[in-house]
Amino acid sequence: MDEHAHGCTCFIIPSKMLRQLADEATSASERHSLLDQVELSAHLRGQRSVAPLVMGLVAATGEKRRTVYDAQHKTALPGKLVRGEDSKPSSDKAVNQAYDGAGATYDFYREVLKRNSVDGKGLRLDSTVHYQTNFNNAFWNGQQMVYGDGDGKLFLGFTGAIDVIAHELTHGVTQYAVPGGLVYADQSGALNESISDVFGSIVKQWTLKQNVEQADWLIGAGIMAPAVGKALRSMADPGNKELTWSGDDQPKNMAGYVQGGDVHTNSGIPNHAFYAAAIALKGNAWDKAGPIWYKALSLLTSNSTFADMAKATSDSAALLYGVNSAEQHAIQAAWKVVGVA
């Protein structure tokens, strides 16, 4: 990857969600804790990662290599090594979940899309658990996965949700697969988030062996306390608060596009386009819709728009299934559903 490519420090929980929860907090200590986490997130996003060379260790072609560290409730990364590839399970549930989730994501990309790890060259998958104390987030920092434990009141932890793990690791895939990476702002940033939701959802469906009709199409189901909500987002019906949480402001088509909006907000539009395509193509999302979306990544540029993604997926479908194929028509129709020409 070009050293100047656009990677991102990308969080599963948007800062605007933490701010809303802070506004609704019932105690000053809870409010201050949430706002402190917003500040820390902003600080981390502003940093360029400078990690030792071992962090980028490349495994042999086709070899799965996972390493899990324990931050011991501090912020220094990567932390203490607690589990490596082929070592025995830990007594720590979060360690095992991070290890297993990284493995499932690696296996999906390797077996279904023939990709060797996030960079396509066998990059070792490093994860750190127990980041900070009561940290209500998980993120990809351009080199590795990092998981907080949640505060137990609003968020219940992040390592138990395979779609969250695959979502964050897919930020790494996008970083390497899109020439130059996707700028993390405006429509290119919303595409970055959407691509992670798409493959987070597909990995979850693949792991559970669910077809497009059986899948719940929710992102982050189970990471929030019931009092907060059921999930972060719905790809089937973006913005439906009954399915997600009270602050879900995602539009499902261009009529609701928020100019200058948060990348986690406008990502609802390409999310719904993928959902519409997968439903139209039927069967398993990883059979046709997923490979079409994946092949499209190499056809994008750093500042790609939704219209560029629509063209890239249409072109990808043509390359895989032929010009004017039923698959290409299904992709084109899906983008029309969300108002993208």
UniProtKB/TrEMBL annotation:
Query: Where does this one sit in the cell?
Result: Secreted
Residues forming the Peptidase M4 C-terminal domain are 181-340
A GO MF annotation of the entry reads: metal ion binding
Q: Which CDD domains match?
A: M4_TLP (cd09597)
Q: Which Gene3D superfamilies match?
A: 3.10.170.10, Neutral Protease Domain 2
Coiled-coil stretches, from where to where? none
The active site consists of: 168, 264 (proton donor)
What Pfam family does this protein match (any one)? Peptidase_M4
Q: Which residues form the Peptidase M4 domain?
A: 64-175
Q: Which domain of life is it from?
A: Bacteria
Any Gene Ontology CC annotation: extracellular region
Q: Among the record's GO biological process terms, what is one?
A: proteolysis
Cofactor(s) required, per the database record: Zn(2+)
Tell me its EC number(s), please. Answer: 3.4.24.-
Please classify the protein's predominant subcellular localization into one broad category.
secreted
Q: Which UniProt keywords apply?
A: Hydrolase, Metal-binding, Metalloprotease, Protease, Secreted, Zinc
Q: Which family does it belong to?
A: Belongs to the peptidase M4 family.
Q: What does this protein do?
A: Extracellular zinc metalloprotease.
Q: What is this protein called?
A: Neutral metalloproteinase
